[in-house]
């Protein structure tokens, strides 16, 4: 019941991004919600200093999740099975003054983590 603001940061290293789709679920004390958004973590350019790629989304969730406990990710793969380096995901829930930070700092393969 409310709007969530989500920031997804891909690592700053060469080939940290992916051409594949990533799904995201918010899991709270009172339930979970599969978000409609489909991330496509972009790859950085080869010939420049890389900085983290950050995608920002706002998503309405119809149920009250309560305080967030964790996130779930599922990375799909199509023709290219590449890994994605998820640096961190931050979420600001309805009425919250601060963001909840979910550091990942790992490579995510197809199939989820």
From TrEMBL:
Domain PLAT: 2-113
Keyword Signal belongs to the record: no
Keyword terms, alphabetized: Calcium, Metal-binding
GO-annotated molecular function: iron ion binding; oxidoreductase activity, acting on single donors with incorporation of molecular oxygen, incorporation of two atoms of oxygen
Name of this protein: Arachidonate 12-lipoxygenase, 12S-type
Family, per entry: Belongs to the lipoxygenase family.
Lineage top rank: taxon: Eukaryota
Site (Essential for stabilizing binding to COTL1): 107
Keyword Metal-binding on entry: yes
PROSITE patterns from the UniProt entry: PLAT
InterPro entries, sorted: Inner_ear_hair_cell_LOXHD, LipOase_mml, PLAT/LH2_dom, PLAT/LH2_dom_sf
Annotated Ca(2+) binding sites: 17, 82-83
